Amino acid sequence: MDYAPELEIAQWLNTDMPITLQGLRGKVVVVHAFQMLCPGCVAHGLPQAAAVHAMFDARDVAVLGLHSVFEHHAVMTPQALEAFVHEYRHPFPIGIDRPDASGPLPRTMQAYGLRGTPSLLLIDRRGRLRLNHFGRIDDMRVGALVAQLVAEPGAVARAGMASGEATPAAGDVHARGAACDANGCVVSG
Amino acid sequence: MDYAPELEIAQWLNTDMPITLQGLRGKVVVVHAFQMLCPGCVAHGLPQAAAVHAMFDARDVAVLGLHSVFEHHAVMTPQALEAFVHEYRHPFPIGIDRPDASGPLPRTMQAYGLRGTPSLLLIDRRGRLRLNHFGRIDDMRVGALVAQLVAEPGAVARAGMASGEATPAAGDVHARGAACDANGCVVSG
Amino acid sequence: MDYAPELEIAQWLNTDMPITLQGLRGKVVVVHAFQMLCPGCVAHGLPQAAAVHAMFDARDVAVLGLHSVFEHHAVMTPQALEAFVHEYRHPFPIGIDRPDASGPLPRTMQAYGLRGTPSLLLIDRRGRLRLNHFGRIDDMRVGALVAQLVAEPGAVARAGMASGEATPAAGDVHARGAACDANGCVVSG
Amino acid sequence: MDYAPELEIAQWLNTDMPITLQGLRGKVVVVHAFQMLCPGCVAHGLPQAAAVHAMFDARDVAVLGLHSVFEHHAVMTPQALEAFVHEYRHPFPIGIDRPDASGPLPRTMQAYGLRGTPSLLLIDRRGRLRLNHFGRIDDMRVGALVAQLVAEPGAVARAGMASGEATPAAGDVHARGAACDANGCVVSG
User: Fold this and answer.
1) What is the pLDDT of residues C61-102, one digit of tens each?
2) Strand D61-67 to strand C129-134: parallel, antiparallel, or no bridges (unpaired)?
3) Contact at 8 Å (CB) between C94 and C67?
4) What residues make up the domain containing C61?
5) A178–B144: do the CB atoms touch at under 8 Å?
6) Is A80 on the interface with D (CB under 8 A)?
7) Could you tell me which of C87, C69, C70 has the C-alpha nearest to residue C78?
8) Does C19 touch chain D (CB under 8 A)?
9) Which residues of B touch A178 (CB under 8 A)?
10) Rounded CA separation D14/D17 (Å)
11) Is residue B58 one of the residues assigned to a domain?
C-alpha cells in the first residue's frame, strides 16, 4: 500500500504553522475536502468534520479542511474563504488546495483523484490512504472508521507509552479516541 | 474487570433461540435497554440500535434490545411489546427483562444498576462490561465506541482466520466492522 | 356543505368535561386522529398537533387528539393510552374513539371515512369539515390551512368584539391566530 | 399604517424584469433578507423562503430574496452571489440591496431598520409592512402568517373574480393560498 500523497497547500487558515502529512505521521488524519459554495459540504461535511474534531483526542486524530476549488474560481478566493471560516467558526486548520495553471482542478485534488466535493479522506497512523469517499456519509460510519484506524498500531511514542502500543492499558472503552463528555458515559473498571 | 452479568430474560422476540451473553463470547455485544413508552428510547435509542445492527458485520457485533419495564407494568406487557415491535419493525432480537416479585425493577436492570431508560451497554469480545451509559448519546460516538471494541483481540476463531487476530490483513479500512455500503467508498492501497 | 359528524367518544383524557364539536362551534377545530403504536403519529403527527396547540390562540383554535384504534385492540387500551399520554406529556384533550361491536373500526373513524392513522381533520368555525388528510403533512402547510380557517367569518361573539368579525382591527399580522413569541416578531403599526 | 418603503435594488437575479413593491400591489409579498455567508440564512431562512414559494399560489404570494450585505463587502459581490444562487438553486427572484457610499449598511436595510440577517418581511396586499422579524422563525408560524395575509381583502381583480373578494366561493380549505399537493388531501363538503 502506498503512502498518501503529500498535501499541496497554497495557504493555511486557522493555524500559525504549515501542516504536512509527514509531520502528522503517527496520528490518524481526517481530511474533509470541500468548497465554500458546495451545499452538501456546508450542511453536512463541515459540521461532521467539526464533530470529529471535538470528539477524538487530538493526540490520536488530526482533522484538516481542504478547500479544493474546481469551479467558480473567481469568487471562491482566499479572502472569501477567510470570511466564510470566520462566519461559520470552523475550528480546525484549513488548507487551500494549490491551483494548477494548466486547468481548473487544484493539485491535491488531482493527486488524490477526488471526484468532487464533499470528499472524505482517511489516512492511517503510518501515512497510508485508507478511505477516499465522495458524497455524504453518515456520522456513525465516520465514527467507526476513524476509531478503527485509531486502534491500529503505529502511534508515535508518547511519554509513558510504548511506541506502537495499540490497546488501552485500562479497561475503559474510551481510554483512547472517543472519550465521553463530562456528563458521564460511565465505565466500570 | 468483572464479566458482565448474564441477562435474565423472561421471553425473547425476533429470535427462535434464547440468547445468552455466554453464547456471544467473541463478539462485541450492544444492548439497548428501553421501555416501549419511553419517548427518548423510541425517538433515538431504538433507531440508533437498528443503525448499529445494519452497519456492523454480524460476525463481529451482536445487537440486542432489552425491555426493562420499571413503570406502567400493567400496560407494557409482552403482548403490547409484540405489537410495538411489529409496528416499528425493529430488526434485532429483543429480550424482556425478567420481572422481580420483590419490586418494580426487573432483574437485569438491577444486576447492571441501570439508572433508567434509554441505557446503552457495551460488552467486549471477552464478556466484560465496558460502557453503561444512561441517556442520549450521539451516533458518531456510538460508532466509534463499538468500532474500538471490535478492533480489540478476543474474536472467536473463524474459518481462515486465526483466533484473536485483531487487525485486518488487507489495507482497506472496512475490512472488519464498519463496511461501507454498495455505493463503494473505499480505496485500498 | 354538510356539518362534520359529531365525535363519538368513549372516554376523555386531559379534560374534566366532555367535549363536543357542537360546543366548539365558532372555533376552528383541529383533530389529530392517531394510534399510540403508530410510528408516524408518535414521531410527527402528535408533536405537530402540540405545536398547533401552542401557537394558535385557544379562543380561535381547539386542538383535539382522537385515539382511533383499529388494530392491536387488546393492548391499546384506555389504561395504556393513559400511560402513553403521561410519558409523552401531550397537552391537549384526547378522546378515545368509541369501539364498535360489529368490527375493528371505531365509530368516529367510520363516520369520517378515515383511511388510517395519522389523519388530520380540520373543521371550520361553522362546523363544516374542510380537510381530511391521511398521512404526513408538513408544518408550514398545517399552519397555513389553520390560519386560513381562522381568518374566515363565523367566530362566536366575544366581549368587545362583534360577532362574525373576521379581520383584526389593528394592523399587526398576529392580532389573531399566529401570535409571535415573547422574543419579538416585531410589527410596525 | 404606512406603506412599506420601496426596495432599492442594484441588480436582480432570477428575473428578467426589475421588480417593485408597487408592481406587486394586490399580492402578499414575502421578503427574505439574507447574506450568502450568514449560516442561519443558508441553513434555515433561504430553504424556508423556497418552501413558501413552492406552497403558495403565485397569484397570491410573491417571494423575494434580498441580499443585504453589511459585512465582508469585498467578497459578497454580485458575481459571488450569482455562483451561490447557481449552486443552491434558489428558485425565486433575488435583489441585491443597493450599497450606500456613506456606510456599510445598504439602503433597503436602512429603510426598513433591519437588525441583521436573516430577516423576514411580510407586506400585505395593500402594500403595508406587517411583519419585520429578525432571526429564526419556525415554518408553521410563517405558514400561518402568510395565509392570514392572503385571506385579507385587497387582491387585484382577476378574470372571473370580483376585486377585493377575500373568501373562497367553494368549501375546500385550499381554495386559495395553501393548496395541497397532487396526492390530494382535501375533502369538500
Assistant:
1) 999 999 999 999 999 999 999 999 999 999 999 999 999 999
2) unpaired
3) yes
4) 9-150
5) yes
6) yes
7) C69
8) no
9) 141, 144-145, 148
10) 9
11) yes
